[in-house]
Amino acid sequence: MLDVIIPSAKLIPEELQKIGKLPAVIYPVNQRIVFDYIYNQYRNVDSRFTVIGGENCGLLYKALSRYDSNKVDIMNLDTISDLGHTVYVALKDEQETVVINFGDTIVLEDVYDKNTDAIFCALDDVSSTWTFFEEEEGILTQIYDKINIAEKIQKKLFVGVFRISNVKDFRESLEYAFDNPITDISSFYTALQIYSRRHPFSFVYTDHWLDIGHADKYYSSKLEVNAREFNHISIDKNRGILRKTSDNIEKFIDEIKWYLKLPSDVEYVRPRIFEYSTDYSMPYISMEYYAYHTIHELYLYGDLNRNQWSDIFKRIRFVLQDFSRYSVQGEGILDSLSDIYINKTIERVNELKKSSEFISFFEKA
């Protein structure tokens, strides 16, 4: 059985705490939490998950309660130290291969190979945002742990996923790092460096990874996941413009027309439209992309107080009252409303039930 260790003892950065002080692993990304994406990566492998919490750990128990407790375990740290200490509490000598997957990291590709020690990495300019490294023949020779360098230099950065084949040796490496601390370098990275001398790493380069631990990268992550989930959406991340096409031509044209027919004084409820075509041969729409949290995310995954919910419902009430100035006359209105709000909902649920993503999201292992 593969053990997947997910350290998530600290809260998300302050700039992302508008929906509550949440551990990163349960932060919402496109209608799901980070843990759901990580869990889905290993759903075809006999695996169990240990989520290591600390700050606001009660929210972890609440958010992950739908998962089988024999499959997903939550450890609550009494004292929060550095990353190395957090990982250490979940390691046991009898374990075989483990994967350490940071609670703020989603890698959107296969991350499992039980026979190798591996580090997932990417290339970027050295900065204080991430931890970078140098290596020779699989041995880590230099660690740059969130530091600034005056000159612009590209180096490998730790994405946040690590495969360890010899847990006993890695525990010993962590213990050595605890006893011999290096200033400004986490004991976890020191231990990786020590461990690599006995078990050289292979390095897996990836462009398909999402970082939830930084505000700018989080919103970019929302764009990336949306673009991957829907075949007919492309997003210009630099301009914040979403372009949509669809195979369901008739329905899609009706959707575009609905946007265009909104009265001008209530157009504030929809994104700005930059380009569109209702030509039956190739309809499309280019519009402003909204990266805001949905009510769905706020309700299921947020930790808002009474006053914040009161403000939300005041805004909803205002929109409903503003819309009430308009009405539609004619036959078939009730049938149309029933089709939109009942039949289409049932149709969508039935579509989701057939998808592997839906099954992985709700299954009990």
Short structural summary:
Strands 1, 4, 5, 6, 8, 9, 10, 11 and 12 form a nine-stranded mixed β-sheet that branches. 35% of the residues lie in helices and 24% in strands.
Q: Would you count the extended β strands for me?
A: 17
CATH homologous superfamily heading of the largest domain? Spore Coat Polysaccharide Biosynthesis Protein SpsA, Chain A
What is the CATH fold-level name of the largest domain? Spore Coat Polysaccharide Biosynthesis Protein SpsA, Chain A
Mean pLDDT: 85
Strand content: 15-25%
**Using only CA atoms, what is the Rg?**
24 Å
Q: Please identify, by name, the CATH architecture of the largest domain.
A: Alpha-Beta Complex
Give the fraction of residues assigned to helices.
25-40%
Q: How many domains make up the coordinates?
A: 2
Structural class: alpha+beta
Series of secondary-structure elements, N-terminal to C-terminal: EEEHEHEHEEEEEEHHEEHEEHEEHHHH
Per DSSP, the total helix count is: 11
